[in-house]
Amino acid sequence: MVVEEPSSKKTLYISIVAALILIGGIIWYWSQKSAPEPVEPAGAVGAAETLSESVPEIKTNLGEKVPEVNPLDRANPFKYKNPLR
To answer: Are residues 25 and 31 in contact, defined by beta-carbon separation less than 8 angstroms?
Structure first.
């Protein structure tokens, strides 16, 4: 019967844990490295699509927020509402 010393069991457990951590790290590294890189479309159409994503939209409707500047609305003391509006 073989009697092992407690320190040799301890070093065995530490080496097993270290080997598992090392193997797990290698597997994680290879899974990250083999991830597919995004492929950009080729040609002028692909370049236009890529550039159009980075350009912000500009609102061209200048009449969207026009202030109410009718002088009759300001001067009218009776506050008559026009039914045709």
So the answer is: no
55/30 Cα distance (integer angstroms): 36
Whether this prediction's pTM lies above 0.70 is answered by no
Alpha carbon 70 to its chain centroid, in Å, reads 47
Distance CA 12, CA 18 (A): 10
Sign, CA torsion 13/14/15/18? positive
pLDDT bracket for residue 17 (50, 70, 90): very high
Tokens representing residue 2 in the block: 């073989």
Give the pLDDT of residue 6: 67
Question: How far is Cα 29 from Cα 34, in angstroms, rounded to an integer?
Answer: 9
User: Diameter of the chain by CA atoms?
Assistant: 113
